[in-house]
Amino acid sequence: MNSSKKAVVLVSGGLDSTTVLALAREQGYECYSLSFDYGQRHRAELFAAERVSKTLGDVEHKVVRLNLDSIGGSALTDENIAVPEEASEGIPVTYVPARNTVFLSIALGWAEVLGAQDIFIGVNAVDYSGYPDCRPAFIDAFQQLANVATQVGVEGGRYEIHTPLMDLGKDDIVKLGARLGVDYSQTVSCYQATDDGLACGVCDACRLRREGFVNAGLEDVTRYAN
């Protein structure tokens, strides 16, 4: 492996980001996985992120603490807002305001320190629940920002934000992960998972995940509470 081929990979502990980490590793990158303790209610994902990062062989796993719960505005950070258990139209209440903008900004800073010019994130424009910061337009805009807001960009380098899952359905993502040997039983996608990582089976994240396994014709290895 080329030791100079470094990448920062955003890893939440869920199905998508774990698949992205496995893919970046297959492509020969030395992966530095980055997770965020941002005040999310489903904190089991942090333990899942640590598990999958170790299993897939990253160089380092860093957890950055933020307090997005202090501003609220999302069912994922405010316990007074119920997590919806039915599909909703428009932007759902599980959208966390500016989350991916903040996450990518910190990933960019770490990449600059590491001397890495590649950042991977598992955003998806097909099964993305309507989040505005999962669209190609957002990624393109952030990549432009990255290349004018950093020393690397000013000195002629170039950052690339990799979104390998952008145009894939959840079933295609599951198939890709299966080919890469991902153990999805280690991942947690549920918006209201128990402390032990058991999924509710009814939230939007659980619904999309389950449909992915079904449509891929693969066993759903998710651990459900019921």
TrEMBL record:
Pathway: Purine metabolism; 7-cyano-7-deazaguanine biosynthesis. Its cofactor is Zn(2+). Zn(2+) binds at residues 190, 200, 203, 206. Binds 1 zinc ion per subunit. ATP binds at residues 11-21. Keywords: ATP-binding, Ligase, Metal-binding, Nucleotide-binding, Queuosine biosynthesis, Zinc. It catalyses: 7-carboxy-7-carbaguanine + NH4(+) + 2 ATP = 7-cyano-7-carbaguanine + 2 AMP + 2 diphosphate + 2 H(+). The keyword Ligase applies. GO terms for molecular function: ATP binding; ligase activity, forming carbon-nitrogen bonds; zinc ion binding. Gene3D superfamilies: HUPs (3.40.50.620). Its EC number is 6.3.4.20. Catalyzes the ATP-dependent conversion of 7-carboxy-7-deazaguanine (CDG) to 7-cyano-7-deazaguanine (preQ(0)). This is 7-cyano-7-deazaguanine synthase. It comes from Congregibacter litoralis KT71. The gene is queC.
